Amino acid sequence: MAxxxxxxxxxxxxxxxxxxxxxxxxxxxxxxxxxxxxxxxxGSGKSTLxxxxxxxxxxxxxxxxxTLDGEDVLEMSVDERARAGLFLAMQYPVEVPGVSMSNFLxxxxxxxxxxxxxxxxxxxxxxxxxxxxxxxxxxxxxSVNEGFSGGEKKRHEILQLGLLQPKVAILDETDSGLDVDxxxxxxxxxxxxxxxxxxxxxxxxxxxxxxxxxxxDFVHVFANGRIVESxxxxxxxxxxxxxxxxxxxxxxxxxxx
Amino acid sequence: MAALSTQPHxxxxxxPVASRxxxxxxxxxxxxxxPGGREEIWRFTPLKRLAGLHSGAAATxxxxxxVNAAAGVTVETVGREDDRLGKAGVPGDRVAAQAYSSFSxxxxxxxxxxxxxxPTTVTVTGAGEGQVAYGHVLVKASxxxxxxxxxxxxxxxxxxxxxxFVVADGAHLQVIAIHDWAxxxxxxxxxxVKLGRDASVKHTVVTLGGDVVRITPVVxxxxxxxxxxxxxxxxxxxxxxxxxxxxxxxxQPNCRSNVVYKGALQGDGAxxxxxxxxxxxxxAEGTETYxxxxxxxxxxxxxxxxVPNLEIETGEIEGAGHASATGRFDDEQLFYLQARGIPEDxxxxxxxxxxxxxxxxxxxxxxxxxxLEAAIxxxxxxxxx
Lengths: 257, 385
What we know:
The structure holds two protein chains of two kinds. By secondary structure, chain A is of the alpha/beta class. Chain A has helices at 46-54, 78-84, 101-113, 119-132, 150-164, 180-194, 233-242, 245-248, and strands spanning 3-14, 19-31, 35-39, 59-68, 71-72, 86-89, 96-100, 143-144, 168-172, 200-205, 218-223, 226-231. The longest helix of chain A has 15 residues, at 150-164. Chain B is 14% helix and 41% strand. In chain B, α2 (331-338) packs across α3 (344-360).
């Protein structure tokens, strides 16, 4: 059973002059079968948390620990983290010109699974996974994310989630920029992944609308670089009606109604 | 590459000394002064490493030219007096004029008219380390001919030449010139392409080996309807100098050109130069042209110079544009691929292969395409990228 454990995590980013502390002591444990929604205003450090866990070179861990099933994640390279079972669905997936989606998916699956998937099964698996997300099969031959719309990029992040089957998935504002149909399709993809009950999900979002499709077990409010309040599903409803003003002193709606 | 950190080239910061139209040309080597290195057309080239090709070095040997001709293609070895030679263009610098003044035998390859021929390969092997040689090749695509000529350069020594491509009316010629020289080789070559009415050329330069390689492809249009696609793919390692100077001379109406050169550089002292000149003369109404150069700098200590020049003497054109960007390896692409479990070295290879993919995909001779893919892999292995 997978467990991602984050303890007293402090993270800085090197800006133009001095390092700036963005995460100021994050504690969070995500166990298999659990979905944790991390909600917070813009600039609170939610995305930094996701990138720091994935190992983006821009962020420096100044103190604290992150472990996956007891293994020290912070000691691992970016690709080792992914192979250990961490997955980050990015808010802004990167374009890689000249590398076809099908080549990329197969290379990633080979790396994560430790062996190349048998071609015949693989083709079927990818086709099925693409159909589930309403992705046109023609995308397989296009360059990774190149010229994709925002919604197409997000569908492909969830396609990778489904194919790579990580132990813990971090979804960084996967709902942002999606229309109603795309949000439904993407959410269904996340729910299929969760269905085994053996994986953990960290769902980072600014708005509550995705929580109508993906049921969180826990809701955490993130403000000023740390978790300031935790609760159950009902906390999202409070945020929906009251916004983040209580945590920031500023008026910023969790949902514009 | 949209995601590269790009350094856009300056517009108007450097005013060319003279219009490309006034560029001096001559068959006679003595009509050119020995370059000192400050001249506009020589300022990027390490003259000291040219083995005297620019300053009158006499031939000490000759390059071996072997032709593997497809059915229907004729191959001749002719003397310098053959009056078919020198028709596609006039040497535009002292080394080209030296080569023109110095070669003793020329190879003439003729593609049959109104027929499609299989690829013909011309293999040129240098005269050997420390040797100087001059050569001349003429490729004639007869009226309505359709075919491919691969020029394959190998071996050692210094070698200067002119290569002519006379593409008759309605002919379609594909050229792939692969510079796969040994480490010591010095190669300076001018390619002269002359396109007849409704003729087309797909001209690809690949530069991998050699100490100094300087290629100047010049395209001229003899009549309307000509179409030129120029591509270049180069990979410079530590200490290598690779220079490509395509020039498209639009002097006829309703012609088209497209230039795409892409290079990767790695290692200390790797230096690439791309000077892309396009001139649209007053008579060339309805011209459509675009040129692009991209450089991917993989390590510190490498330098890419890129200068696109576009001169337009008529407003009555379809379109004209240029772009140039030199960027470092994109860490965001690397992060994205690694975040999906792909190890760093493999991720780097994917990105570099992807960078060249659009050019490699267009090479429709499978053996050449496979050879290039393998060569790029080998380059990347070499630095342990």
